[in-house]
UniProtKB/TrEMBL annotation:
InterPro entries: aa-tRNA-synth_Ic, Rossmann-like_a/b/a_fold, Trp-tRNA-ligase, Trp-tRNA_synthetase
Record CDD domains: TrpRS_core
Enzyme class: ligase
Organism of origin: bacterium (Candidatus Gribaldobacteria) CG03_land_8_20_14_0_80_36_40
Pfam families, sorted: tRNA-synt_1b
Name of the gene: trpS
GO cellular component: cytosol
Name recorded for this polypeptide: Tryptophan--tRNA ligase
EC number: 6.1.1.2
Coiled-coil intervals: 197-231
Amino acid sequence: IFVQSQVPEHTELSWLLSTITPIGDLLRMTQYKEKSKKHPKNINAGLLNYPILMAADILLYQTEAVPIGKDQSQHVELTREIARRFNQKFGQTFKIPKVLLPKKGAKIMSLTEPKKKMSKTDSPQSCIFLFEEPEMIRKKIMTAQTDSGKQVKYKLSLKPGISNLLTIYSAFSDVPIAKIEKEFKNKGYQVFKEKLAQLLIEKLEPFRRKKKELENQQALLEKILEAGRKRAQIIAFQTMEKVRKNMGFRN
C-alpha cells in the first residue's frame, strides 16, 4: 500500500506509453464515451488518457494478473495490447497481465437505476460504500429500485432491479442465486430486502470497525505507507531502467 503520486515513475511511464498508443484506441473506450456524454463541458485530456495511466500502474510492477469488475475489462485489454505493442517495438519488457473476473458480482448495478452500473460518482443513494453506517445500508437497500410484482426471481431483462439485488446477495453470501430464489419463494421483496440489508451490515462491519481503529493511529499509517512506497520504488526503478534502455534513452 502506497501513495501513487509518491512514485514518480508512474507518470513517466504513462507518458512514454502514450507515444505508442493510437488516439483511436482511447476514443473507443466505453467509459470515456459515457463520461463525455454525461459531462460534455468537461471533456479533457486527463479523461481521455486515463486508460494509459492505468496501464502504467499495472505494467510498472510487472503484474501477472489483475482482479477487476466487468466494467474495467476493456481498460485491462487495452493495457495488454499496449504491453504487446511495446514488446514488439522495443523488445521484451513487460509481462502481459491476465484478467481475473470474479465468478459472482463481476458487474453490480446501481441501486436506483438498475440498468446502469453502480458507481461512487453517481448519487450516494445508488451505491453501498465500504465503510457505510449500518442504518444507511439498511435504508439504501430497503429503498432500492425493484420491479412490478413480488416474486424474488432472477430475470435480468424483465426484473433488472431484483436481479441486481440477487446478484449482490449471492456475491456476499456465496450462495447460488437459484438457492436464494428458493429460500425467498412467495416471501416478497420486503422480507428479501431486510435479509439482504442485514447480510451486508454483517459482512461490512469488520471493515468499518477496522477503519475506526486505524483512524487514530496516524504514525502507524504513515509507517505502512512509507514501507509500501519503498517496496514499490525498488520495482518501479528496475522496470523504468529496462524501459529507458530498450527505448534507447539510456546506455
